Automatic annotation (TrEMBL):
A Pfam family per the record: S4_2
SUPFAM superfamilies, per the entry: Alpha-L RNA-binding motif (SSF55174)
GO terms assigned for molecular function: RNA binding
Identification of the protein by name: RNA-binding S4 domain-containing protein
Keywords in alphabetical order: RNA-binding
Domain RNA-binding S4: 11-72
InterPro entries, sorted: S4_RNA-bd (IPR002942), S4_RNA-bd_sf (IPR036986)
């Protein structure tokens, strides 16, 4: 599991996928999310504007990321 540090208290799912490096573009994030290929806290998430907070866990095609607050990436 890779910790991904954010500077704000929350972040949208599509923005998080870009910030973490899991996807290259927002368009790619939008497609993956709408196809149900992204999980947040073990639940399929199809809303790209889903707010993530520190402690949330995002899964995408075998990669697992934890949202963390604090130091920069």
């Amino acid at each position: 599991m890779k910790k991904v540090y954010i500077k704000t208290s929350t972040i949208n799912l599509d923005q998080f996928l870009k910030w973490s490096g899991a996807v290259s573009t927002g368009g790619e994030a939008k497609v993956l999310i709408s196809e149900g290929r992204v999980r947040v806290n073990r639940q399929v998430e199809t809303h790209r504007s889903k707010k993530l907070s520190p402690g949330d866990v995002v899964e995408l095609e075998g990669s697992i990321f934890e949202v963390a607050r604090g130091r920069e990436n």
